[in-house]
Design brief:
The complex is a heterodimer. In chain A, about 40% of the residues lie in helices and about 20% in strands. Chain A has 15 helices and 12 strands. Chain B has 2 domains: about 200 residues, Cytochrome Bc1 Complex, Chain A, domain 1 (2-Layer Sandwich), CATH 3.30.830.10; about 180 residues, 2-Layer Sandwich (Cytochrome Bc1 Complex, Chain A, domain 1), CATH 3.30.830.10. The longest helix of chain B has 19 residues. The chains are: A alpha+beta, B alpha+beta. At the A-B interface, helix 2, helix 4, helix 10 and helix 12 of A face helix 2, helix 4, strand 10 and helix 12 of B.
Chain lengths: ~425, ~425
């Protein structure tokens, strides 16, 4: 497979080594950004080892067959490469920004880290301990704790998990569990690489072919132990509605709610983007206007979407002092309902303008370009030309949004409140 | 580094305009810097600067609050504002063709009419913001730090103010505060990106030129830095926040980059704290930050940890500082700081939005903007000898000011 998108000079390959590679050559840029994503996130964990993807993410930079952790990180520093990594729900990602003259070295260092990590015992022990501390520290982060509880109730397995696992599963983790996760999921047939900036796409492809040759897993090892389907397939959301309250001593009450919406690959995804922008895309967004500016109920209120590979969930959240929680909750629901009643063309125009300007400003940064291609590979299996995305957003109408609201009604909600007071409505 | 160039101009009423031309980017950013922060507030009006920032979005002679929101969003701008101890900054990131409209809107917002109904309603929003900060351990710890770092001084109170000062403040007090503090002489219009300077200057003259010149009323006083130990026991938090603060050089001084380097070597990426505290499992988050103002500076060692580890973490932070002071930095540590800064600065040259923040720092503390190359020169000038000299003048090995928030009732500060 090979295609070139002329508008943005994107070269997209499935390399012989198995990597799905997209490169956007931008010769005028002062930096290069690349992302390496592996389908190895916490949805793939064994149920008895929840939290292992995060532990792996912490431990993978602590030594390779060639050098110890300090030497590895010093090697990145020697070329000024700003590197980081994360464990997400479906993917583990390694992110790097560097000057163009150092991109080959930076890619080699990543290949070394991905192919030959040694996972020293003490590093694994520390990573498990730090993950345990992060899990416990969720008690001091009420917003994140509320979202964790909402996911647990609403998403269904295995998408209902949290990055930090659970206390009892963390207690079971050891180096062997980390190595097993790496062996099973760190292979080129589960790897997306995207590169943006002043690079030569052919040289990037050649380098990756050599650096990752032979890392494809045998077919027998590819099955996910968590749930089927394995490998590169995706899990559907198994939505569970309901209302749950967790009592906690807090200054503010957290409200978190969600319900299913379109997947990124759905033809209505651009409609959803505009709809969310109408709700929460700026200062004139309905939530900010109605909940904060007109009623003074909150400082923070927001709406956003969350997209596993094979589904979508529309979220709303707010935090408010306990005496205002009922009114805040009722206003959130009312604003959702009102979208289908009195949406105006001006609102849609502003939402579209905001989305398009965002693409031209923040979305133009080299790192954002690499990230966008990575999302395209993850969801669509190919890079999507920006012109195509812009056109799809630009063409959204009020009628599209009304149709969308009928297709995805908020008739079933999952709601979590966290704080001193239950909802009484 | 990409080529950029600066244009500086001052209107007859005193408003300063600074433009950085970045012809290589497809966007532009524009901000209004106001030299007013919480340190400029009378104590009865603690939180007024931040409250006024909110009120600038709530109505002008030409626009209602709804129209301000609509017009901001119609620009498609990524826009925001913040208030800190010594400044307020309103800013946005737009397409190049929208910069003049953004200047008009920002200029209008700088002359708020403080509609009475909105004034009262906005108090609720700020009270919610204060409550939200009260649930955040890092925010509580930061405010506790400054309360003891700058005792009996406006720098010592939270930027958000207190619930009682917000509730008790009147619209008349706020109007007087705005008139005193938002004089054009205390403001700078900053623009960066793909722009035509002549059109920017014309827009500034048109929309800001009629503002009346006036003196900025208050004279800032320098806080006397506190020391000792302050433990705030809050059992509802799971973790313990531990902060140890020392005097540091001021912002804009020749030593500023050295102070930043000391903070990065001790507590930045791949640092001593990372390997000897975080990677020992003692704390999931430990680091060092430098905060500089025109007349005041501090370096703060900090950690969030399990409460049972707090004594060990405190001792480990002090041990790392002692070692750096006695042995000096390793060559590769200094080089790391420089290399990472070089990459970071290269990235910032493609984002006018991020350039605004850096330019605001330069203008606030140096009086003139610096290019990315000038910034890099300053970083490259940091040497091991400079670090050693800095640590002699601004020692980090004394008792300092220890502040801790969390379940603990006491901590063992070995340097007492």
């Amino acid at each position: 497979m090979h295609e070139t998108l002329p508008e943005e000079s994107i070269v997209h390959h499935r390399l012989n080594c198995g990597i799905d590679l997209a490169v956007m050559a931008m010769p005028e840029r002062p930096i290069v950004a690349f992302l390496i994503r592996l389908l190895a996130g916490y949805a793939f964990e064994r149920p008895e080892h929840l939290g292992v993807a995060h532990v792996l993410d912490e431990a993978i930079s602590k030594g390779t067959a060639r050098r110890d952790g300090r030497a590895l990180n010093d090697a990145f520093d020697a070329i000024g490469a700003a590197h980081s990594s994360y464990a997400g729900r479906e993917t583990v990602g390694l992110v790097c920004t560097c000057l163009p003259e150092f991109v080959a070295e930076a890619l080699d260092l990543h290949a070394e880290m991905i192919r030959t990590p040694t996972f020293p015992d003490d590093a694994c022990h520390t990573a498990i301990e730090l993950t345990r501390q992060s899990h416990a520290a969720l008690e001091d982060d009420p917003g994140e704790l509320a979202r964790k509880l909402l996911h647990r109730h609403a998403y269904g397995p295995p998408l209902d998990r949290h990055l930090y696992g659970e206390k009892e599963t963390l207690d079971r983790l050891d180096r062997e569990a980390v190595v097993a996760h790496w062996q099973q999921f760190f292979s080129t047939d589960r790897m997306h690489v995207t590169v943006a900036g002043a690079v030569d796409p052919a040289r990037i492809a050649d380098q990756l072919e050599q650096a990752f040759e032979g890392l494809t897993q045998p077919a027998d090892d590819r099955q996910s132990p968590a749930v089927e389907p394995a490998s590169q397939a995706a899990w559907p959301i198994r939505f569970q509605s309901g209302q749950w309250h967790y009592d906690k001593q807090l200054e503010q009450q957290q409200i978190a709610l969600c319900y299913p919406c379109a997947a990124v690959t759905d033809e209505d995804f651009p409609v959803e983007q505009v709809l969310v922008a109408v709700l929460a895309g700026g200062m004139s967004g309905r939530l900010f206007t109605e909940v904060r500016e007109k009623q003074g109920l909150v400082y923070w209120v927001d709406a956003w979407t969350d997209h596993p590979r094979a589904g979508g969930m529309l979220h709303m959240g707010a935090s408010t002092t306990p005496q205002r929680v009922d009114q805040t909750y009722a206003t959130l629901l009312r604003e959702l309902d009102r979208l289908g009643e009195d949406l105006s063309a001006d609102e849609v125009d502003r939402a579209v303008a905001g989305l398009l300007t965002s693409i031209q400003t923040r979305g133009d940064m080299t790192r954002a370009r690499a990230g966008r291609m990575a999302d395209d590979l993850f969801y669509h299996g190919r890079p999507i030309a920006m012109a195509e995305k812009i056109e799809r957003i630009r063409s959204v109408t009020i009628q599209d949004i009304r149709r969308y609201l009928q297709r995805y009604p908020r008739d079933r909600l999952a709601v979590v409140t966290l704080g001193p007071q239950r909802l009484t409505i | 580094m990409q080529d950029t160039s600066f244009i500086q101009y001052r209107l007859t009423n005193g408003l300063q305009i600074v433009i950085e031309r970045m012809p290589h980017v497809p966007s532009a950013a524009c901000g209004m810097l106001v030299q007013t922060g919480s340190r400029d507030e009378p104590d009865a009006l603690a939180g007024a600067a931040h409250f006024l920032e909110h009120m600038c979005f709530k109505g002008t002679a030409r626009r209602s609050w709804e129209q301000i929101s609509i017009d901001l969003d119609a620009l498609g701008a990524q826009h925001n504002a913040y208030t800190c101890k010594d400044r307020t900054f309103y800013y946005g990131w737009v397409r190049p063709e929208d910069v003049e409209r953004q200047i008009e809107l920002l200029a209008d917002m700088m002359r708020p009419t403080l509609p009475p109904d909105q004034f009262d309603l906005e108090k609720n929003v700020i009270l919610e913001e204060i409550a939200m900060a009260g649930d955040d351990l890092a925010s509580v710890a930061y405010d506790a730090l400054y309360e003891h770092l700058c005792p009996n001084h406006p720098m010592g109170w939270p930027v958000l103010g207190y619930a009682n000062t917000i509730r008790d403040s009147s619209r008349q007090q706020m109007a007087a505060f705005a008139e005193r503090r938002y004089a054009p002489r205390a403001m700078t219009l900053i623009v960066a990106g793909q722009v035509d300077p002549d059109r920017i200057l014309a827009a500034a003259e048109r929309w800001c030129g009629q503002w009346q010149d006036a003196d900025v009323a208050s004279v800032r006083t320098t806080p006397a830095m506190g020391s000792g130990q302050a433990i705030r026991t809050m059992s509802r938090f799971h973790q313990q926040a531990v902060l140890l603060a020392y005097p540091a050089t001021t912002a804009g001084s020749p030593d500023e980059e050295t102070a930043e380097a000391v903070a990065a070597i001790l507590g930045g990426t791949n640092s001593r704290f990372y390997w000897n505290i975080v990677q020992k499992g003692l704390s999931r988050r430990a680091g060092v930050f430098y905060e500089g103002y025109a007349d005041f500076g501090t370096i703060v060692l900090f950690a969030l940890c399990e409460s049972k580890n707090a004594d060990t973490v405190l001792a480990a932070m002090q041990q790392e500082v002692r070692q750096l002071t006695e042995e000096g930095p390793q060559p590769h540590e200094l080089q790391r700081v420089k290399n990472l800064r070089r990459t970071g600065l290269a990235g910032e040259t493609e984002a006018p939005y991020y350039r605004l923040g850096l330019l605001a720092d330069d203008l606030a503390y140096r009086g003139h903007p610096r290019s990315a190359a000038e910034r890099l020169d300053a970083v490259d000038a940091v040497t091991a000898e400079r670090v050693a000299g800095y640590l002699e003048r601004f020692s980090l090995t004394g008792p300092g000011l220890l502040v801790s928030v969390g379940p603990r009732e006491d901590l063992a500060n070995s340097a007492r």
